[in-house]
Amino acid sequence: MQRYIGRIRVLTAVCVLAALIIIGRLYYLQIMHGEAYARRADAQFVSTQDPLLDRGTVYFTDKDGNQITAATLNSVASSTAGHQRYYPGGSLAAQEIGFVAYNNDNTQKGRYGLEKYYDQVLARDDTYSNFFVELFGGVKTALQGGQSQGDIITTIEPSVQAELERTMVDYDKSWNPDLAGGVVMDPKTGEIVAMAVSPTFDLNSFGAQSDPLIYANPMVQNVYEMGSIIKPLTMAAGLDSGAITEQTTYDDTGCITVNTKQICNYDFKARGVIPMQQILSQSLNVGASFIATTMGQATMRDYFLNHYDLNQETGIDLPGEVHGIVTNLNAPQQVGYDTASFGQGLAMTPIETVRALATLANGGFLVTPHFVKAITYDTGVTRELGWGEPVPVLKPQTATTVTRMLTVVADDALAHGKDKLEHHSVAAKTGTAQIANPAGGGYYADRYLHSFFGYFPSYDARFIVFLFAVYPKGAPYASETWGPPFHQLVQFLINYYNIPPDR
Questions:
Q1: Would you state the pLDDT for residue 41?
Q2: Cis status of the peptide bond prior to 392, with omega within 30 of 0
Q3: Are strands 150-154 and 58-61 parallel, antiparallel or unpaired?
Q4: DSSP letter assigned to residue 125
Q5: What's the confidence (pLDDT) of residue 54?
Q6: At what angle do helices 396-408 and 231-241 cross, to 10 degrees?
Q7: Which distant-in-sequence residues (6+ apart) come within 8 Å of 118 by Cβ?
């Protein structure tokens, strides 16, 4: 008898659980999403020309964890009782969010950005289905843990995104580059807090643009020679492999000849016998070449291709990502390695560059940059997305050593120390790269790419900031054009997030 009582109790518990699930599903369908299903019912009687009856929402996430709408549906007065995609932020994160537009088959699909990458999650089946199919199909999905359509919750912080975009606008006014962009990322997790591109456009009137190339995202779809911000990666590879130490010295002659090619410091001046710190502090090409030659080709190739993954896509959740062009590191000539050591002769996407530089900020780990941290499915279940465990690629002491060297650069070398923060440590480096001439080969004599990266607080980095511009006019060096904007962004982030002092 006792055995039957136990079975009855188990059966009762199962029935109660099933009833609770059904009640919850009824509440979800009728109360929370009643309007959506009413639209589907109406669609049976209206000949609609707009298949966008329903689509998931894209959310920003502010610093306090609140969700703020980035893309949603907006009712419009028309004979079809249709709904349009609406972007409350207008141009905010335009290249990252993307937009919805008609496809060749006369259906609306996500085009560009997160709208495209997560189209299968955001899209809704506009075909009306039986209520009980919806009800019990939802119960089955909940019980089996299956996936369905839903809303996406991004890591983009709208206030930081707006500040980064203001930085781009001000930079454009001052230096008139052909293109500019920036990233603010958590180096420990790969969560992208902000990404901006200039020029940009208004998502609510994207059809007004005459050049469709503006919709693409050069942060993941274009490659560039980044210049001297690559020197810290060369330094880290040399230290990590044991080819050099922080105390190693070399005789800087100002210019050297490698495979009949001349490599010179930016000012052609010799420094004499100096330690490794000066390679970063004075941004010396001859010094970076010394490290590359001392490491040897096999070691440098291993670090650049197998540790930093500069020939691999990052796996970021944006469409159309390409990988770097690193053919010089597979050739026998030493000059290719020497020029790569200071960021010339190899080309990378900006996000690929950020991921590699983040290894210096996070203790030596390669992370996956990403925008979406969670999906709230139509079943009512929210699932946190996993982006893989960080991969160790440098010894922790290597990252600490290079961080210490870059902090000296920020404190003493950049702007001759006038931007040094009294209470917060910052590790930073600039880059000024020659731009390749696609017509005649070689490089333009008067066109440069300016880049700047830094992270803070130096030894427990909350953010890594990366900025770059193609062919700014009016100043030869990145320290002149990006120094003040970088400093202002750092100050904004410290104040906005109330980051405590570390010194």
A1: 43
A2: no
A3: parallel
A4: -
A5: 81
A6: 140
A7: 110, 152, 317, 372
